Amino acid sequence: MKQDSMECPTEIKELLKVLYNLSTSETEVMYYLCEKEARASEIAEDLNKDRSTVQRYLSKLRATGLVERESIVEEGRKGRHYVYSVSDKEEMKEKVRKRMKEWEEEKLSVLDKI
């Protein structure tokens, strides 16, 4: 399934870029994960991206606290794989709201120095 139908709205991309210093591609991956959990390989295939590039995006998204990773061991398969998700949309929205307030305070303090 290609993700053309779930294009991330420009307003969301811009908001996440400003608040978290995310690229357009990173915001697209996060938006994808708002719809369903997935492995890096699935995300890469659906978004037509290189898997190693998607893994870098996921690492940065995890560092923001907006995306979580769960280790899965499947019976009959060697090793483990990771599934990425935005576990709770409301919690994620609250994190973004909190970051918006922090960002606003940071920018207002810069204005106060002028």
Automatic annotation (TrEMBL):
Entry superkingdom: Archaea
Domain (HTH arsR-type) ranges: 14-105
MF terms (GO), sorted A to Z: DNA-binding transcription factor activity
Record keywords, A-Z: Coiled coil
Coiled coil (UniProt feature): 86-113
SMART domains, alphabetized: HTH_ARSR
This protein's name: TrmB family transcriptional regulator
Lineage per the UniProt record: Archaea, Candidatus Nanohalarchaeota, Candidatus Nanohalobia, Candidatus Nanohalobiales, Candidatus Nanohalobiaceae
